[in-house]
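Hello,

Our lab assistant flagged a job as stuck in the queue for most of the afternoon. It eventually completed. Since we weren't sure the result was trustworthy after the delay, we are filing this so someone can double-check. Below is the sequence as submitted and the structure that was eventually returned. Let us know if re-running is recommended.
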Amino acid sequence: MIRFCSAGGCSNLIKDGRHCSKHAQAHAVVEKFMREPFYDRAAWRRYVRPRQLRHFPMCNDCPAVASEVHHIDGTWRVTRDWRLFIDENNLMSCCHSCHSKRTFAENQSKGVL
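-- returned structure --
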């Protein structure tokens, strides 16, 4: 089945996978970067994330309902410090669209994309 590349705004057609050759490598880097074991922990999924969304149900950037939790400071990725990962002062509620924009901008500034 032929379809469009999953990268936003790309009009290249592909037969297999999700991305064209132009975007496949960049997407692999992003996927590796985003795969973090902390997100799989029950404490994050059952307590920290739901608490953030319950206490701050609206997106920090727009008037939409929040569905995702964004880490303001990504230092925890380097230090691997669980306390920084769950620190409520380091979390903000975002809708999917705003979270994607923030994450994309941060990855671009770090040279990931």
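-- support follow-up --
The delay was a queue issue, not a problem with the job. The result is valid. Residues 36-113 form one domain. The chain has a mean pLDDT of 85.
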